[in-house]
Amino acid sequence: MLTVEHLTKRFGANTAVDRASFTVDRPMMIGIIGRSGAGKSTFLRMMNRLTDATEGRLLFEGRDVLQLKGAEKRGWQSDCAMIFQQFNLVPRMDVVSNVLHGTLARRGTLATMFNLYPREDIHRAIDILERLGIAAHAAKRAEALSGGQQQRVAIARALMQDPKVILADEPIASLDPMNAQLVMDSLRRIHDEDGRTVIANLHTLDTARRYCDRVIGMRDGRIVFDGTPAQLTTGVARDIYGAGADFSENATSTEIRDPVATAIIRAAEVAV
Amino acid sequence: MLTVEHLTKRFGANTAVDRASFTVDRPMMIGIIGRSGAGKSTFLRMMNRLTDATEGRLLFEGRDVLQLKGAEKRGWQSDCAMIFQQFNLVPRMDVVSNVLHGTLARRGTLATMFNLYPREDIHRAIDILERLGIAAHAAKRAEALSGGQQQRVAIARALMQDPKVILADEPIASLDPMNAQLVMDSLRRIHDEDGRTVIANLHTLDTARRYCDRVIGMRDGRIVFDGTPAQLTTGVARDIYGAGADFSENATSTEIRDPVATAIIRAAEVAV
Amino acid sequence: MTQTPDAPHDPRGHYLALMAQRRLYGGITLALFVLLMVSGFMLADERNAGGFWNGLPQVFDFPADVLADTLPKLAALPGHFVTYFPALVETINIAAVSTLLGAVAAIALSLLSTRGLARWPRLIPVFRRFMDILRAVPEIVVALVLIFVLGGGPVPAMLAIALHTAGALGKLFSEVNENADLKPVEGLSSVGASWLQSMWLGVVPQVSPNYFSYALLRFEINIRASAILGFVGAGGIGYELRNAMAWGKGRFDEAAAIFLLLFLTIVVFDQLSSHVRNAMISSKKGGH
Amino acid sequence: QEITEFRLGILGGENAQDRMTSNQCFADKIAEALGVEVKVFTPADYNGVMQGLLGGTIDAAWMGASSYAGTYIADPEAVEPVLVKQNLDGSIGYYSIGFARADSGVTSLEDLKGKKFGFGDPNSTSGYLIPSIEIAAAGYDMTPGAYFGDVVFTGGHEQTIVAVNNGDVDGGVTWADGQGNWEDGYNSGALRKAVDAGLVDMNELVQIWQSNIIPEGPFVIRKALPQDVKDAVTELTANLWEEDPDCAYGVAAGDAKDFIPVTHAEYESIVAARQSVSN
Amino acid sequence: MADTALYASADRVFRRKRIVAFGLPAVILLYLGYIFFAFDLPGLAGRARWDNARTLLADTWSYKTHVTRDNRGGDVAVAIEGERKGSYPQGTAPDWVLPQDDGAVRVALSGGQEVLLLPGNGFRWEVPGFGLIEARLEGRKIVSNLPEEGLPDWISASPSRLQVTADGARVALTRSKTELFRYFPGWELFFFTLDSPYHGHGFGEILLGAQIDPARGNIAGAWQDFWHNPMWRHADVAWALFETLLMAFLGTMGAALVALPLAFLSARNFAPLMALRFGVRRAFDFLRGVDGLIWTIVLSRAFGPGPLTGALAILLTDTGSFGKLFSEALENVDGKQIEGVASTGARPIQRYRFGVIPQVVPVLVSQVLYFLESNTRSATIIGAITGGGIGLLLTQAMITQKDWEEVTYYIILVILMVMAMDSASGWLRRKLIKGL
Ligand SMILES: Nc1ncnc2c1ncn2[C@@H]1O[C@H](COP(=O)(O)OP(=O)(O)OP(=O)(O)O)[C@@H](O)[C@H]1O
Ligand SMILES: Nc1ncnc2c1ncn2[C@@H]1O[C@H](COP(=O)(O)OP(=O)(O)OP(=O)(O)O)[C@@H](O)[C@H]1O
Ligand SMILES: [Mg+2]
Ligand SMILES: [Mg+2]
């Protein structure tokens, strides 16, 4: 289904991604971990064609998406949604409009310029928001929402694209633990229910372990680990992060262990 | 020496300070505690004449300072230094200039506007900074200093005024525990060595207990407690804070119990 | 994230209704704007001596005449530059002095009319209105009145521009003041500093970079304004330009020389001030 | 060839509103004769009218002799002079008058040596062109700083009078018909207007110079207009004093005998003069 | 110990500060000193004409009525401000002008004084505190009872002209006429001229009283006479104001519409070609550097006098200003939003529409509205050159220096207009930015 072959990206002398190769044969939830500068973001950005690769191929359903141009490239982008760490919404526009941006590639230029979207798109956008538990904020401006809510709007925009793949670049790094959990739960549910492939860059090992079916570890642009969460031992993690023996996972953990907090989150999920 | 009689301040319908009365007969260190909105800041601001009182008298050495006007009022302000929670320094000016501001009320307007401070004032400012352990930063801009250092600059400015009374409005509320301790120690030392009266609004009971000779508790503008630290039991504290039985002092404690941290502070004190 | 009391029961209908309303308002605003533009254009076109579409092909006639008159006499240009340089200096001086005086007045006015800083809080509206009026009176009006009283020359222009500058900068400065941090002021008041001292030591250092940047911008504007006032007899380069331009064919070479002189001056000061301002902004961002 | 509107430019020593009012009847008559709308424009200075005529955005105007010459030099094919105002005494001229403040002790150009001399508008015949030539010809170099201490343009006749009266300039030139008494500011002209407005007291001014007679400015029509339009407007204007003296009074800005035909030949000397002072 | 070093360094710091504190003002003072002489301020006091200022001030709130006696025919005419439009019809006069049986005319002044315009081409005026002034035209000379020397400065006498100014009135005797000006406070004929039937009637009377003009209803008639008042010409003034606003509006909005697409070409992060960007930037500099007034002159050849020329001149200048401001705003946009839109596969134009426009619109709107207000003022000046709007009326009225009350009227209107635009644009700015 998805094959990455010797994918390489160089910025001048600096190789951000170095001959990365792997294969995915069925929709799954993949976590990419690695320390800052390892090339995780660059990899996702190449996949979404926000950045051009220097070398290598990226086959999706047999087609090399790195060769696509113009309308075909935009078609691929709409099949391959991206979720950003900083949400990258249009803060001054309302939530539904932001979600509707997911349809831009499919709709006519002129109509969208005047914000004219078909009614069924609007309904679907609200359905998606409802599914993510933020339909009540549909008419608000994106900037008026909390970080977790904004990230869920970003996920809604991604879903609106009806993509085959969802890429998420550190989707929870700007969020507090409670919101982080809400967002990761949403992503997981999308994978479980819709069967879409989700590839997420993650900062924290425990999140990767808890939510992913497969974990890829990167270091200095190269893939140094590719396995199941169970294979991801502390020793392996030390290798990935290039850390010494004093490495402790808890330092990077975002999991909420407090039973009270978990209860609050449950309540909140029901309320919104 | 200092007598407060029925001091009252009303903001519209809201009475911030309600007929507060007490007497101080010798220089001592007084802590005022009470929850947010109790009227602590308003009381100090009236005393420094930053705010006018609605009713009541405040006699210092027999003179009602609330009646003073113009130059006399400014004279009283220079006798009664104030230290603020947010330091209220001029951030773009260097430390010595900030300290020298303590002499403004005594020097001519024009001279001070052209930075014409007498040489002995400058030297005294340096002496004071040295006493507070921050002379090394004398030439830096105030904004370049850490919070604790800035607060000590504010104390230096207060000392520069050579005041009879020092008022401190939550002097350690914006500081981390290490800096809080440094600042409170400085205030106590000033009281001990110079015999100046220090009145400090404090957020935390343990600080009041540890540093003050007398503690005044306020609630809704009224003085509800006036006694020694020893008399300030948890029960009394509950009354002052209007808290229920679940009140635990530790929630508001800033004391550093960790032996390592204490060691760090020592080291820092030596270093600066 | 509790249930908001006004949360709609039917988010779809609610949003669609909102959307329809927004579209309606947006559409009306847009239509109104287009209508105003189109009808305004047609009206202006109708009231003008020459129509827009007829005039368009002739737009370059005047510059062409100027060029035709100047090109054969290119050799005379350096001489003209020298002749008119003193007038240019006068124009720049008018702008500089009026910016200086206007800025000083603006600082005082803005401090007096900013809430939290004002010496006499009750008089804030008075000072504000006063600035509004200073700003609203076109320089040309003041200049003409003053020319009547003081006679021609640079002084009426300087005063006229200074008054306007005081109003215009006063407004900008008081906006800057509003964002100033009041804590240092309070700190200074607590030591018994007088109003002047707390403004000078507590506010001015905070806001002076912004003041300076606005004043530079204003200086640039004032160079133009003082050139313009020359058009109505207030001396300087504008006066020379108007006379040369009005004469037309035969003296266009002078007009071209003066124009070049003025234009270069404006561009130089424009670049200079944006340079200084950029440098100031980046030094502010780049730590202390 | 049809025209859809007729555009009249007016200039003069009155403020814009008064000019509009005193020429409204004229405009109405043209509208009636041509059957098209007539618009009246009152540019701020001579140059405005010149540009309008050159650019073809003004169809007819009363001009000064010098500004006509300027227009002719810029484009000989732009306009043709058709009529000129004839004074009550039959002449078609007026004078440029040099004057100064009585209390300054200046009584002649001699006395102005090293002092400040004021012209009006650079496009004015009596306020600049003729005096600059005739005074120079009389031996007083008009380059600033040569004979006079400085030579400036005040911007217009009214400004010159005010400037002299205020002492901003030591001597200046303006126009007058040269008839009547000095203390009244002559019968008509800029001085007379200033006296009537209470701006100056003629006791405080003295005359120091007078030019030769200057031809009145022509009424010009744009050459490119259809011949029948030109004819209709010319005829109508020529008959104005006969048919509607009140209206003619407003158009001529004072009493006159008639509007009589004129040709370019009348202004050859002015054209030459203007060319001689150009670079 | 370290103290001395610290002291020394602190002393050094303060010495430097003092040098700056004195140096900067000193430089400024030096410059001002240079200006003092360059602008010849010492001579200014001598040149200033305070009597002009007084005339001006007096004239702004008062008007004068001329009583003119023609010394050839002996006719007496009364006209407000000496204007034809303000003339009292032949044979009528205000009640303070009293023709006597002997052909003299008695003119009553305030404070019980009076001036007699005598049939023998002369006048008699008893000025309190000075005495009787009598003057007469004898042949071609003016003779009077005034001494040759030592006259007060309010009397100006020569054999051909005698002028006396005192207590709210002025009399001038020349060979051709005797003229008396009497000053009154207020703006006369502001509502109705003398020939209107409504002249002299109060508001209440017009609104509620009996019908004054049998041909017209009171309100309609009064409005018509007021609006077309030939002296103050309110309708024309209103049109001129509107024309000024029109110039400002068309110029500003047009400039914004032209500048927006061009700004994309000159913003570092959007420019397709660096050479193009450089070119567009210099074009902006050029448009801005040439002032609107010069554009007006350049354009007046092609478009002639009128509001369109003014609007186009504003448009050209402001295209330069907006171009620069907009491109700066564009260079400051947040790339994240654009990337977010781009990641969905949006077309480039959609990226601009949703990634860029929403970010820059608030900046744009507020700049445009700021300019709209300041252009109202510029349009006043431009109108003075291009021949349109309130600016022309104002400058012409000032230059001809006839009626300062008219000038005052225009100035007040201009100030009100600019202030109204200021608040309107402020209101709109708050409204739009909140809603955008
Ligand atoms: N636009 C760029 N130009 C130059 N170098 C870049 C660029 N983008 C990324 N890099 C470099 O490529 C390398 C990989 O960066 P990348 O952002 O992919 O890392 P990352 O794993 O996402 O790190 P982080 O956790 O900090 O987001 C880094 O060394 C980075 O400096
Ligand atoms: N300037 C003011 N205008 C109106 N009300 C005020 C003002 N300043 C204080 N108050 C009110 O007076 C009351 C006492 O305020 P004060 O700041 O003295 O409390 P505090 O004990 O210092 O509280 P905190 O711990 O929050 O500083 C509060 O109810 C406050 O809202
Ligand atoms: Mg990254
Ligand atoms: Mg407080």
TrEMBL record, chains A, B:
Q: Name one Pfam family in it.
A: ABC_tran
Which residues are in the ABC transporter domain?
2-245
Q: Which domain of life is it from?
A: Bacteria
The answer to whether the entry has keyword Cell membrane is yes
Q: Which PROSITE patterns match?
A: ABC_TRANSPORTER_1, ABC_TRANSPORTER_2
Q: Which UniProt keywords apply?
A: ATP-binding, Cell inner membrane, Cell membrane, Membrane, Nucleotide-binding, Translocase, Transport
Q: Which GO terms describe its molecular function?
A: ATP binding
Designated name of the protein: Phosphonate ABC transporter ATP-binding protein
Q: Which organism is it from?
A: Salipiger mangrovisoli
Q: The organism's lineage?
A: Bacteria, Pseudomonadati, Pseudomonadota, Alphaproteobacteria, Rhodobacterales
| InterPro entries registered for this protein in UniProt | AAA+_ATPase, ABC_transporter-like_ATP-bd, ABC_transporter-like_CS, ABC_transpr_PhnC, MetN_ABC_transporter-like, P-loop_NTPase
Keyword Cell inner membrane applies: yes
UniProtKB/TrEMBL annotation, chain C:
Alphabetized InterPro entries for the sequence: MetI-like, MetI-like_sf, PhnE/PtxC
Which keywords appear in this protein's UniProt record, sorted alphabetically?
Answer: Cell membrane, Membrane, Transmembrane, Transmembrane helix, Transport
Q: How does it sit in the membrane?
A: Multi-pass membrane protein
Main location group: membrane
Q: Which SUPFAM superfamilies match?
A: MetI-like
- Transmembrane spans: 24-44, 92-112, 133-151, 221-239, 255-272
Indicate the segments forming the ABC transmembrane type-1 domain, all copies: 88-273
Protein localization: Cell membrane
Protein family per UniProt: Belongs to the binding-protein-dependent transport system permease family.
Q: How is this protein named in the record?
A: Phosphonate ABC transporter, permease protein PhnE
TrEMBL record, chain E:
Record membrane topology: Multi-pass membrane protein
Instruction: Write out the entry's keywords from A to Z.
Output: Membrane, Transmembrane, Transmembrane helix, Transport
- What is the first-listed, main subcellular location in coarse terms? membrane
Q: PROSITE patterns per the record?
A: ABC_TM1
Q: Where is the protein situated, by its record's location annotation?
A: Cell membrane
> For this UniProt entry, which segments traverse the membrane?
19-39, 237-265, 379-401, 407-428
Quote the InterPro entries the UniProt record gives: MetI-like, MetI-like_sf, PhnE/PtxC
A single Pfam family it belongs to is: BPD_transp_1
Coiled-coil stretches are none
Indicate the segments forming the ABC transmembrane type-1 domain, all copies.
241-425
Can you tell me which family this protein belongs to?
Belongs to the binding-protein-dependent transport system permease family.
Concerning NCBIfam families, the annotation shows: PhnE
Q: What is this protein called?
A: Phosphonate ABC transporter, permease protein PhnE
State the organism named in the record: Salipiger mangrovisoli
Record lineage: Bacteria, Pseudomonadati, Pseudomonadota, Alphaproteobacteria, Rhodobacterales
